[in-house]
Design a protein that fits this description.
Dihydrodipicolinate Reductase, domain 2, Alpha-Beta Plaits, six-stranded parallel β-sheet, alpha/beta, 3 domains, Rossmann fold, 14 helices
Length: 437
């Protein structure tokens, strides 16, 4: 029986999950693959800590060259994360003719073009299902089952840490800082949670999805990115009164002029929206194709088992290709490199959306008239309003939901309103998405 030898870089949580899955489901993998997968080398800086799985000492190493220079290794799994030395290791593996499987969304969002070009040059595959959505098979679905569609839009909850925090804030009425601290104590958030809570992790994943869906290069740094740290329990309370939930969404759209909307930010969605019930650490992704219509994916977006499932799925896909002598059967981004287009990004100032606006005002006559007047001057019309009688923090909150308005007009109106002595704090706004069809 044919045997494919696998090298693993990174013996952390996900690496442990990969080894556990290889060992626990070994018979099943042989049945489905018709070949053996042999773990030939595991490289990590720490090979002495007990991970709860048994690995032959002979295949453990702290030297990356023991893996990269081994001509018998067919497939390399990279699970160390970050930009470097992951980039160097992946490029060296490719140059030596090894196929690569990675879960490293940051690496591919920033250096993907270089890595995919190197893979094409050396005739190997790079697969990365686990980079977006953990165990959710969205990348293979876009590249394979849905590849005949022109995609109109995508939206997704792509970060389990943020979704966990917002879910608890919604269910418990707790403030962001308290939930974050508790999430860190229970291991749901990193000691430095910046990449998660400020939307950077989500933007990395959106960069990959935009390229896959729209066949275009979208530089990660050009994606509008805003996190959840400014969302308060008060905003969540008012959202519920208007019939919304707040989620950190990745949004991608293509307009009639071929411009791409690429943005990550807190978003109010209706309670009956398909993503509204994606709670806790779960992820959800909704795609709309011209023939498929809306397609929804949800599942565990992170964690040892779910991510290991996606990683091994890619390993098996490569092994199946190798069994029949196929290489690069499916392009890395789902479209041939010569067909990739440089589509323009739509500036955030031109985005059209409904908006939730919250003002902290003094309790005096004329406040509402002043705010309404400025909004009207900027062509912003009001769809609904809440004005509680009680003061909060020494000010009366005034809350609006607008009809569709232009982002630049919203920002201009709030900047002018905030100069008034009747406004006690910086005004807040959250974008609203009802239907991304």
């Amino acid at each position: 029986m044919k045997t494919f030898r696998v090298g693993l870089i990174g013996f952390g949580t996900i690496g442990t999950g990969v080894i556990k899955l290889l060992q626990q489901n070994q018979d099943l993998l042989v049945e489905r693959l018709g070949a053996q997968l042999e773990l030939a080398r595991v490289v990590d800086l720490d090979i002495s800590t007990d991970r709860g799985v048994t690995v032959a000492p002979a295949i453990l190493s702290t030297r990356i060259d023991d893996l990269l220079t081994d001509p018998g290794i067919d497939i390399v799994i990279e699970l160390i994360g970050g930009y470097e030395p992951a980039r160097t290791f992946v490029l060296r593996a490719i140059a030596s003719g090894k196929h690569v499987v990675t879960a490293n969304k940051a690496l591919l969002a920033v250096h993907g073009e270089e890595i995919f070009a190197a893979a094409a040059q050396h005739g190997v595959d790079v697969m990365y299902e686990a980079a977006v959505g953990g165990g959710i098979p969205v990348i293979s679905a876009i590249k394979e089952n849905l590849c005949a569609n022109r995609f109109r839009s995508l939206c997704g909850i792509l970060n389990g840490t943020c979704n966990y925090i917002l879910t608890r804030m919604t269910n418990e009425g707790a403030e962001f800082s308290a939930v974050l601290k508790d999430a860190q104590a229970h291991g749901y958030a990193e000691a430095d949670p910046t990449f998660d809570i400020e939307g950077v992790d989500t933007a990395h994943k959106l960069a990959l999805l935009l390229s896959l869906c729209f066949g275009t290069r979208v530089p990660f740094k050009e994606i509008f990115t805003e996190g959840i740290s400014q969302i308060s329990a008060l905003d969540i309370q008012f959202a519920r009164q208007f019939g919304f939930k707040i989620k950190l969404l990745a949004v991608g759209k293509i307009d009639a002029d071929g411009r791409i909307e690429a943005r990550v930010h807190p978003t109010m969605i209706p309670l009956n929206h398909p993503l509204a019930d994606v709670d806790g650490v779960f992820n959800g992704i909704r795609l709309v194709g011209d023939f498929s219509g809306p397609v929804m994916f949800s599942g565990r977006g992170a964690g040892m088992e779910a991510t290991a499932s996606a990683v091994l799925g890619d390993v098996m896909a490569i092994a199946r290709n190798l069994r029949v002598g196929a290489v690069q059967r499916t392009p890395a981004l789902g479209v041939n490199a010569t067909a990739l287009r440089d589509l323009p990004l739509k500036p955030m100032d031109e985005i059209i959306s409904e908006y939730y606006l919250r003002f902290a005002a003094t309790d005096q006559a004329g406040v509402l008239a002043h705010i309404s007047g400025v909004l009207g001057h900027f062509n912003i019309s009001i769809a609904a309003m809440i004005q509680p009688e009680r003061q909060i923090g020494g000010a009366v909150p005034i809350v609006f939901v607008t009809h569709e308005a232009r982002e630049a007009d919203i920002r201009g109106a709030l900047a002018q309103i905030d100069t008034s002595p009747m406004i006690r704090d910086v005004s807040r706004f959250v974008r609203i998405e009802r239907d991304l069809s």
